[in-house]
Amino acid sequence: MKKDLRIRKNREYKRVYKYGKNYWNKHLILYIMKNNLEVSRVGFTVTKKIGNAVTRNKVRRQMKEIYRLNYENIKSGYDLVFIPKKNVVNMPYSKLENSMIHIMNIAGILK
Q1: What is the distance between the alpha carbons of residues 8 and 26, in angstroms, rounded to a whole number?
Q2: Contact, 74 vs 40, CB < 8 A?
Q3: Whole-angstrom distance, CA of residue 20 vs CA of residue 34
Q4: How far is CA 87 from each of CA 4, 79, 96, 101, rounded to the nearest angstrom?
Q5: What domain range is 28 assigned to?
Q6: Residue-level pLDDT at 33
Q7: Rg (alpha carbons) of the chain, rounded to whole number
Q8: Domain total for the chain?
Q9: CATH of the domain at 46
Q10: If you count Cβ atoms within 10 Å of the first and of the last residue's Cβ in the chain, which end, N or C, has fewer?
Q11: Distance CA 24, CA 51 (A)
Q12: Is it the case that residue 3 has pLDDT exceeding 90?
């Protein structure tokens, strides 16, 4: 994942939350908004409800890797923000991957 393909600034996250559309399943929430760029950008928000910093970073790293592996299958021109729910803490990687692919299918951003 290239550095310029990430949402970093607080105002960018807030814009996606305010003007974007949200989708959810049992394990994740996805906010999505058109960004008028040639690439899709992604951000990950892991709340403090999910455990200590080690646990949150583990979940974030897993989600980043799943996104990186599936980046070629995602339509360009969107800002995406993934928010995991509490029940992802002890979830196996494969189940988290299925859940992320499922929610991107629901949002209609997979090619």
Answers
A1: 26
A2: yes
A3: 8
A4: 30, 25, 10, 17
A5: 3-107
A6: 97
A7: 13
A8: 1
A9: 3.30.230.10
A10: C
A11: 21
A12: no
**Residue recorded with tokens 């399943």:** 25
C-alpha–C-alpha distance, residues 26 and 1, integer Å: 26
Q: What is the pTM of this model?
A: 0.93
Q: How far is CA 37 from the centre of its chain?
A: 18
Tens of pLDDT, residue by residue over 50-86, are 999 999 999 999 999 999 999 999 999 999 999 999 9
**Share of the chain residues as helix, strand and coil, in percent rounded to the nearest 5:** 50, 25, 30
Give the list of residues 6+ apart from residue 29 with CB closer than 8 angstroms, or none. 22, 23, 82, 83, 84, 85
Residue 37's region, left for phi above 0, alpha for psi from -120 to 50, else beta, is beta
